[in-house]
Amino acid sequence: MIMSMYKRICITNRKLCKDDFFERLKRLSLDENIKYFILREKDLNFQEYINLANKVKPILKDKLILHSYFEACKELNINRLHLPLYKLTENPKIKQNISLLGVSVHSIDEAIKAEDLGADYIIAGHIFNTACKPDLPARGLEFLKSVCDSVNIPVYAIGGINPQNEHLVLNSGANGVCMMQYFMIL
Q1: What 8-state DSSP symbol labels residue 97?
Q2: Which of 51, 64, 129, 130 lies most in the core, judged by the most C-beta atoms within 10 Å?
Q3: Domain extents for the chain?
Q4: For 82-95, how does the pLDDT look when each residue is reduced to its tens digit (9 = 90+)?
Q5: How far apart are CA 181 and CA 159, in angstroms?
Q6: How is domain 3-185 classified at the architecture level of CATH?
């Protein structure tokens, strides 16, 4: 696959940044290979998340996808959201108000269910070993290929992916990759 034919998704984690988080996002927002940024700051409560998203929104503009907080989409007038599958399962009507809905999955059955519930794309993982989940074994490239073959929506891979191994993920059928540590630590 030719590198310019796919896009990356940056998953944020401000705690990993050794420099200024907002300056890093400004710099990364200029990278043409980053299609979206998922603001995934799981340690924040709703109001803290809203405050951070308000600061990030002018930097990332149309590349910003909110994570988990559907209510934040309404409050910030952003109609792009990424969810864990259980949140979409609990409230499948969320899709009615969202123009771009992503869902995290960890099995073929979950991928099919996410697609059936209206997901526009899925993130499947974790593919390689990662510091984020040191006690969980990686699912591997065969898992990823099976997920890609089971759905008709874009699949992005996550977990231990970096520029040195992303070609393996793309060769397995993924539409792109998600990276947190690579973008937040570099």
Answers
A1: G
A2: 64
A3: 3-185
A4: 999 999 999 999 99
A5: 9
A6: Alpha-Beta Barrel (3.20)
